[in-house]
Amino acid sequence: MRIIFATGGTAGHINPALAVASYIRETNENAQILFIGTADHMESKLVPAAGFDFKTIDISGFKRSFSTKSILHNVKTVARLMKSSGESKKILLDFKPDVVVGFGGYVSGPVLQTAVKMGIPTCIHEQNAFPGITNKALSKKVDKVMLTVEDAKKHLEPKHEVVVTGLPVRGELLKADKEVARAELGIPDGKYLVLSFGGSLGAKPINDAMFNILLNSAESGKYCHIHSVGTNGSDFLNKFTENGFVNGKKGTVEVREYIDNMDVCMAAADLVIGRAGASSLSEIEAMGKASVLIPSPYVAENHQFHNAMALVNRNAGFVIEEKDLNASLLKDKIDELLSDDVKLKAVEKNARAMAITDARERIAGIIFSLIQK
Question: pLDDT tens, 29-52?
């Protein structure tokens, strides 16, 4: 079987596609897989590093602004769009795929559009509760649409019935054990652990709101707390050092630049605080964690807010919008949840009920069904 995956731009698009492709490669020795992306985004590094063949097309997204710079960019994008269709067709003719799979990002647009015109079976996967522009357009043409959550369906006009498959979650997270993780981190018996982060780069509004909370927690020792300031948060690390933290630690609080053992930290946590990217939420659900979500308002279509509300509407999480975020409100929410074990356990149960832990298998099964047709 010959399969093309088209995706790129962010890790949220690329990593789920790599998870599915890796599963197919592991379970089907005859599978030949090719990824199509761009030369100047994350896929150009992540895909070859995972051991997959990789081809590029020249494509860019549209900017939603009427500035002179944005208008010039959009004119170039139109030209690239026309060029990329020809590039996509050449790759498709050379590789002769049995199916083409899109995992989002503007790069998937011309590849899937061309595949549809050529009569090649196609499918797409939408990670977010509010679909991106590319997948909205493609859903009207492809043979199968796969969703992480049911909530995305109301925003689409699909040609065929959609299927909820969930989003692939890293295997080490599914295997993690809470008690083993707590012992590894040295969390004392009877102490709650709060885990907070704003993504790999960090999020200044979250760091700002968390600063005094962490200082107070270090003094009170009421609960344990691990916080990541992100790779852009070195100034915050210096502020903690100025306030008596040694190597990022004081009392029951630990502040890191980056969390490189997320499987252990999340397994041990009783409450998770962070953004509402699709991958993070799938991990929170798979591990059955209560969460306070602070959606990034800077993403396309405000999709993180919709992702978060999918949990809120099922009593599986809580949301604080960034415009409302402050230390007092966040501290009150943390204290409220950690003082009500019944409420905490109910939210954990509801989050776990949303989890789809066999997403790789479900997505691969749909891909195979299109090949068999």
Answer: 999 999 999 988 889 999 999 999
